[in-house]
């Protein structure tokens, strides 16, 4: 019992000492900005030392001489020592000013190195853009956006990874993409999003299919019970259709791209449900026929997505702005 109590007391004392050190460290760190001049003031002092003139230093830095004088006086008050002797013949550093100038030179050089490093990071970030997009957006919308981005950022290399909405989410969460685009009914877990547009799904068949000659709209229940040519599970189109109809019959054919689904429908394999964006040409040329549905609206949002808390920057932000233009 006595030993246990002693251990507890020692632990408490040690914790208190460490806590005291931490508190003092925080106090020092917190007050450092108030006790050390800012970079602008240091650059001004270095210019005065180099040019021997407060007015010349002010002109070099693009400020007025009264503003430069005020900044030097503020710096002197902050440090508690005189830094510059002013006379009609110019400005001369005091002994303390010469010492402070030497320290300031090291800090400014370190700041320049910091700035160069940060610029190198930005250059590396801006040199590439990795985009992941679900199939409809990748095939029918992204090409135009990327052409516009190329005009603005000709030196940025862009790679596009196309897949279903689930695959887009996986790539973003694994840091294999900088920005994604999906078409599903909800935002995948772990991602933030912004709606960039809207789309409508329509039922289509080849002209020879019985549905192409219907005089009345198709009932939602009949659509749900009919085997269709569909995208694979995980695709935005499949998610929207399944949610709208409350379930689907076993697919007639299951394919992994919008283009493949469309080709099968044009070939007469059976009816399908596709994005209105994907079938405009086929409807115009009557290779496909749109079949009205009576009591269901197959609409969906098109979304840009990115990992939660990591809003797009650099080229990804630029591309996002283009999608909204």
From TrEMBL:
GO terms for biological process: regulation of DNA-templated transcription. It comes from the Bacteria. The keyword Thylakoid does not apply. PROSITE patterns: HTH_LYSR. Residues 1-23 are annotated as: Disordered. GO terms for molecular function: DNA-binding transcription factor activity; transcription cis-regulatory region binding. Residues 1-18 have a biased composition (Gly residues). InterPro entries: LysR_HTH_N, LysR_subst-bd, WH-like_DNA-bd_sf, WH_DNA-bd_sf. Residues 37-94 form the HTH lysR-type domain. Keywords: DNA-binding, Transcription, Transcription regulation. The keyword Signal does not apply. PANTHER family: HTH-TYPE TRANSCRIPTIONAL REGULATOR, HTH-TYPE TRANSCRIPTIONAL REGULATOR CYSL. Belongs to the LysR transcriptional regulatory family. This is Transcriptional regulator. The lineage of its organism: Bacteria, Bacillati, Actinomycetota, Actinomycetes, Kitasatosporales.
